[in-house]
Design goal:
4-stranded mixed β-sheet; 9 strands; globular; 8 helices; Rossmann fold; alpha/beta
């Protein structure tokens, strides 16, 4: 059987809990790898190159673009962010299921470049619950929270472009649901084309003359 991993793109509103779900999968199972993005912003205190991000200069990043080394990229507030192709492919070929947390525009770009990617959208049970979670974090002022909610209203328009929806009402249950979705993707036909070809060739011996 083929042993290639699944590229799983995880998107969702800020405050939906997608990061928490991904951390749980990474801690519970050794079959996952977290995609590390490249960026041109400066490292923050405690961040390490190759762990939180691959830190690049503008010149290095733009060379990666020209050389086709990124699955997708975008520019936010004067800084580039992108997904290195080689890092993702190395883990997929090693049989790891790669988790990539990214916003909707990036997810659609991944789908164009990597059609077999699995796209999951994470949402809280309601808009009110999302607002309560953002307020409950206690890390942002009300103006920032309202901006995040406004952004969420725009993101909601693209939810139906994803393959699966996970309603994050209870972390343990939702993490198991995500794990089940990703593992089921291993059985998709295009993940086993070499095996299928081999079986087809074997079956030819039974074809009537």
């Amino acid at each position: 059987m083929d042993n290639r991993g699944v590229l799983c793109v995880v998107s969702g509103f800020s405050g939906a809990g997608k990061g928490t779900l991904m951390r749980r999968l990474l801690s519970e199972y050794d079959s996952y790898a977290l995609s590390v993005s490249a960026t041109t912003r400066q490292p923050r205190e405690g961040e390490a190159d190759g762990r939180e991000y691959f830190f690049k200069t503008n010149e290095e990043f733009e060379q990666m673009i020209r050389d086709g080394e990124l699955l997708e990229y975008a520019k936010y507030v004067d800084h580039y962010y992108g997904t290195p192709r080689s890092y993702v492919m190395k883990n997929l070929e090693a049989g790891k299921d790669v988790l990539l947390e990214i916003e909707i525009q990036g997810a659609m770009n991944i789908r164009k470049a990597f059609p077999e990617a699995l796209l999951i959208f994470v949402t809280p049970p309601s808009a009110e619950e999302l607002r309560n979670r953002l307020i409950g974090r206690g890390t942002e002022d009300i103006g920032t929270i309202e901006a995040r909610l406004s952004r969420a209203s725009e993101e909601a328009a693209g939810m139906d472009q994803y393959d699966y929806l996970v309603v994050n009402d209870q972390v343990e249950r939702c993490a198991e649901e995500m794990h089940g979705i990703i593992q089921a993707a291993h059985a998709r036909m295009n993940n086993h084309l070499a095996f299928v070809k081999n079986i087809q060739e074997q079956m030819m011996q039974y074809k009537k003359a």
